[in-house]
Amino acid sequence: MKEGRYEYKEKIGEGGMASVYRGVQVSLNRPVAIKVLAKQLSSHPEVRKRFQKESLIVARLNHPNIIHVIDKGNTRKGRPVFVMEYVEGETLQDAIRAGALPFNRKIDLIIQICKGLAYAHKAGVIHRDIKPANVIIDAEGNARLLDFGIACFFEDDTERQSESNLILGTEGFMAPEQYESALQTSEKSDIYSLGVLMFQVFTGVMPRQPLERPSRYEAKLKGPLENLILKCLEVSPTERPGSVEFIKNELLKIMQGQHLQLAQQRSAGEGLSDIRKKFALLDVIKENQFGSLHLFEDTQTQSLLVIKKRPASASGYKEAKILSQLRHPNIINIRGTSKKDDIYIIVMEYLAGGSLQDKLVEDFSIDSFLNIALDVCSGLAFAHKNRMVHGNLRPSNILFTEEGTAKISDFGLNEHYHRDDLENWYGMNTKEPASELSDIFSLGAIFTHMLTSTVPQFKDKKLIRGRAFIALPENLQALLLRMLDLAPEKRMQSVDAVISELTVMKSEGRKVVAERDWEPTIVRSIDDDVNTKQNSRLGYWLLSFIIIVSFSINIVFVTGGADTVKNTLKGWLSVLGF
User: Fold this and answer.
1) Cis peptide before 210 (omega within 30 of 0)
2) What CATH class has 3-85?
3) pTM of the predicted model, to two decimals?
4) CA gap 371, 398 in Å, rounded
């Protein structure tokens, strides 16, 4: 990051870990918040190392309840900094002190905090410093989490013995295991801190040992909410709730949709007259011009489910109706469908593990990639055997159970993204119709994104192969190239064939190399190919160099052309990179 790209204004906050300045991004003339690490932290090599690694992950976090990091770098004095979007508002800490938050509003804010934190956990990012001061309530009333990537720099607590400022987290909000070792910190540590935050938000005081029941300070807490808070504050991590997603859902069950606006509640109930008595509205997952997704609770079984509503003219209903009669462990379970004059409705299982789109924040090992890839391929192969094409496969419609099993959703839904938006398009940029082969291309694009952190891009109908792609095992490169071949007849012809090769890789490991007895239409980019061809080129250049030297010696001794030799050698050395 170049400091000249940002203008520092006044200091707006300071703590033991960092100082925060209000600034301006010069190129866009937009306000930003610039967080500069404290001097005592900047001097530690481990902190700087973690900063470089973690900041890349944190910058990928994209959630409405998380303050977005837009840049990172160093000041002229070498101190690491984050540049974040600037949000006008007050901290949750200030709101607690003002004492003006209604009880239901407090639950609403905590639900929003849980949504942001659950998203981060699914992406493999731990906050490690959850507290009211790290939550901003913006002008629209949204809770936004701060400081992802600041508190998670530490892996080793050896420096804590000599530097009191290097405590991992904030006193009073830290889980017991955080005091023992930074290496003990996990998602469960964030859950403990969340429990402290909830205790303080509802009672106005910090929990103390021996732990008191929060209902002593706030009678409305008696019952499930109080039990949930106390569960979060268990000393043993294994006794705490399993995930922030679980905590969020428990809060939603307590609220029963009371945190939603009346217009949202009415919209969610439209067209559901036949089943409204069976299901209780909990939350709005998504709502836009293409349709809506709402979270409901089955009042008889207390299980969670999702109801999708789309215009009656939209695609996807036929596929959902077929899938409601079929079952596969890697395809989302459709519990029922219904169609009216203006809309159609799909009732399906709720999956707590998030989407593959969420997980693209982190880097995938080959092993974790293979596990997910085989799950997805298994579901897609089953669909193809039942003569069903997905037609719009992308990371956002690959969902996960809480245990990590991948399931495909949204079969047959029409693509409604801009074609020039590469981040949202995993299909063909041609007029090739939806088919089993186009699904295979989409699979290849998704797999490439997982392994290289980049959506595949093409130039002159050739795949641009970057360093991350070239660094993949050779057999995996070969498979991806065949899946991404622009010529359908040269592409992998079935998902079963893809499964076969992935299974070999999983059983035999990275040493397996596929035989390249094919000529793909898509070839590597010349610009990104230098490193892989260096060895072969070196022999060529050395041979050429020897020939030129021999030729030059002949010129010197036969014609006396020393200047000619000098200029010739200079040119060739330049070509060789010397």
Assistant:
1) yes
2) alpha beta
3) 0.77
4) 13
SS3 208: coil
Q: Name the one residue in this structure whose structure tokens are 């995993």.
A: 426
Would you state the structure tokens that stand for residue 241, as one six-digit string?
């709730």
Burial of 569 (0-12, 13-18, 19+ CB in 10 A): middle
Q: For residues 379 and 441, what is the distance between their CA atoms, to the nearest angstrom?
A: 16
Tokens of 44: 């530690």
Known binding-site residue numbers: 35
* Of 29, 31, 8, 30, the residue nearest 19 (C-alpha): 8
> Terminus-to-terminus CA distance in the chain, angstroms?
30
Instruction: Assess contact for 269 and 276: CB atoms under 8 A.
Output: yes
Q: Which helix (H) or strand (E) holds 382?
A: helix 366-385
Domain extent listing, the chain: 3-85, 90-254, 279-349, 356-528, 533-576
Q: Tell me the residue type at 312.
A: A
Annotated binding site for ATP: 35
CA distance 160 to 313: 62
Phi and psi torsions of 358, nearest 5°: -65, -40
Q: Do 3-85 and 279-349 have matching folds?
A: yes
| Residue 323 CA to its chain's centroid (Å) | 28
Phi, psi dihedral angles at 148 (to 5 degrees): -65, 130
C-alpha span between 43 and 301 (Å, rounded) = 56
Number of H helices, E strands in the chain: 18, 17
Q: 317-341 burial, b for 16+ CB within 10 Å, e for fewer?
A: bebbbbbbeeebebbbbbeebbeee
Q: From CA 392, how far away is CA 375, in angstroms rounded?
A: 17
At the second CATH level, the architecture of 279-349 is 2-Layer Sandwich (3.30)
How far is it, in rounded angstroms, from Cα 176 to Cα 189?
A: 8
Chain center to CA of 557: 68
Q: Average pLDDT per run of 10 along the chain, which is 578 residues long? A: 76 79 90 84 71 69 90 82 88 92 94 96 88 93 82 41 47 83 84 96 91 93 95 95 96 92 86 78 89 91 93 89 94 92 91 92 88 96 95 94 95 62 51 88 94 88 86 92 91 95 84 38 32 41 52 51 54 46
Please give the CATH topology (third level) of the domain spanning 90-254.
Transferase(Phosphotransferase); domain 1 (1.10.510)
Q: Encoding tokens for residue 304?
A: 């969670």
In 55-209, at which residue ranges do the beta strands (DSSP E only) sit?
A: 69-74, 80-85, 89-91, 135-138, 143-145
DSSP state of 14: E
Which of the following CATH numbers is that of domain 356-528: 1.10.1740.10, 1.10.510.10, 1.10.3210.10, 1.20.120.1780?
1.10.510.10
Q: How many CB atoms lie within 10 A of CB 304?
A: 19
Catalytic residues: 129
Enclosing H/E stretch for 127 = none
